[in-house]
Amino acid sequence: MVFMIPDKNCRIGCILNIVFSSLAIIFNLFLLVFNIMNLNSSIPTVKTKEVEWVYKIVIIFTIVYNVLTVLFLIPTIILTTFVLNGKLKSHLIPAIFGIIFGYAVGGIVMLCGKYNFKTEKIDDNSDETSNISLSNN
User: Transmembrane ranges (predicted)?
Assistant: First the structure.
C-alpha cells in the first residue's frame, strides 16, 4: 500500500492554513453581511447622485470579492485536510491556495515541508502483533 506522509513543517503549515483560512471565511462572511446591509443605505453626507452611484458600485464589487474569497477558501480547507491525512498526491495546490487566499505563512511553511511517499507491504498471512518490537531505544 502506498500513501503520503507530511513531515513536521508540512503538518504545521497545514494546521496554520486550516486555522487562518477558517478565520478568513468568518471575517469575509461578516464583511459580506455588512456590505449587503449597506447596499440599500445611502451616504448621509453626500447630496449628489454621482457619488452615491459610485459608492454602490464599490459595495457591489466588495460583495463579489467576499463571495469569491469564501468560495476559494472552502476548497483550500478541504484540500489541506486531505494533505494532512495523506490522501493527495501533491501538497502544492493547497499551499498555493493558502498563500493567495488565506494566511500566507501557512502556505509557505507547507511548501518548505516535505510530502513523501511511504510504502508499506501488508502480508495477509502474517500476524500484526509479530511486527511490534518492544525494545526501548
Answer: 12-37, 57-84, 91-111
Task: For residue 6, report the phi and psi dihedrals to the nearest 5 degrees.
Answer: -80, 145
User: In the 3-class helix/strand/coil scheme, how is 58-106 assigned residue by residue?
Assistant: HHHHHHHHHHHHHHHHHHHHHHHHHHHHCCCCCCHHHHHHHHHHCCHHH
Instruction: Count each helix (H run) and each strand (E run) in the chain, helices first.
Output: 4, 2
Give the tens place of pLDDT for each residue, 29-76. 999 999 888 877 766 666 666 777 788 888 899 999 999 999 999 999
Determine the Cα–Cα distance for residues 48 and 52; give it in Å rounded to an integer: 7
